[in-house]
Amino acid sequence: MERIVGRDRLVSTSGGGYELVRRPLGNGHVECTVRELVTWHHAGELTEDAYQQYLEAREANAEERHQANLERSAKRAKTRVRHLCKAAGVDTLLTLTYHQNMTDWGLLKRHVKEFNRRMARIIPGWFYVAAYERQARGAWHVHMAVHRVPRMLEHARGVKVKSYSVIRSVWHAVVGELGGNVDLQASKRMRAPSRIAAYLSKYMTKAFADGDAWSNRFSSSKGLSVPKPQRIRFVGWNMPDVLQAVFDDLDSVGYQCSAQLSVRLSHFKDACWFILDTNIPMREPAWA
């Protein structure tokens, strides 16, 4: 691989071991990435003619670089949403929709902000991660990951009513004449935060595919700090030994069954990804 920084030409070499990037997200979640070690070397400066050719090629490929940057941005947004969901331990999916064909982006963001402000007054500790999607007709709706809500909530004058009715009344009060509805899902199938995270983060990729600006296609409550990754270099190690060290580490944090762990090896077998979610229950064996 080669990079140009100013007029300097940098060349990379890989091998000699592996780097483990381990991100413990809490709530039973750990993500690990194993890649070959990469070292960058200074390979000299470009001549004036070579530098001008580089600038011309860069200009000619401006649109291609722009698309590549958008893809990387969408991938970062997808990762951020996944990490927020896991670090917060959200386990319930809430969808907010409009009856009218509401296409005003700014109004949508104001509605979501006010809705969550009111919900935080009703449920102390209310936390959300929201992704925004445009329907085929053009209207916006909101997919929101939250913590499981109580079956009953206190509403006006201390009266206990179903939580779904309270949430719907709050959304109706916020959107007014535009009308709307809510869908609250806390099924066992979706309770694992990793599944909620996967469902929500896919909308970052969809936003990129639709050609929308990705940067504001999600929002969340403030105050949550996502743990920083830990980086460990295994100089001189081979891939099987590093992978065994990762499995041993995951065993120590509660890994119990294959359903809890997703493992993917790169096409060239020079990188591997591990995603652990100990919230996924063990399945009873067929013979039990």
Average pLDDT number? 87
The total beta strand count reads 13
Radius of gyration using CA atoms only: 24 Å
User: How many helices does DSSP assign?
Assistant: 6
Q: What structural class do the secondary elements suggest?
A: alpha+beta
Biggest sheet character = 6 strands, antiparallel
**Strand percent estimate:** 25-35%
Written description of the protein model:
The chain has 288 residues and is α+β, with helices and mostly antiparallel strands. It has helices at residues 48-60, 62-88, 105-122, 163-175, 193-209, 239-252; strands spanning 2-5, 8-26, 29-45, 92-98, 128-134, 140-146, 152-154, 160-162, 180-185, 218-220, 230-235, 261-265, 271-277. α2 (62-88) packs antiparallel against α5 (193-209) and α3 (105-122) packs antiparallel against α4 (163-175). It is flat and about 75 Å long. It starts with a strand and ends in an 11-residue tail after the last strand. The model is unreliable at 284-288 (pLDDT under 50).
What is this structure's SSE topology?
Elements lengths: L1 E4 L2 E19 L2 E17 L2 H13 L1 H27 L3 E7 L6 H18 L5 E7 L5 E7 L5 E3 L5 E3 H13 L4 E6 L7 H17 L8 E3 L9 E6 L3 H14 L8 E5 L5 E7 L11
Antiparallel strand pairs: 1-2, 2-3, 2-11, 3-13, 4-6, 4-9, 5-6, 5-10, 7-8, 12-13
Helix pairs in contact: 2-5, 3-4
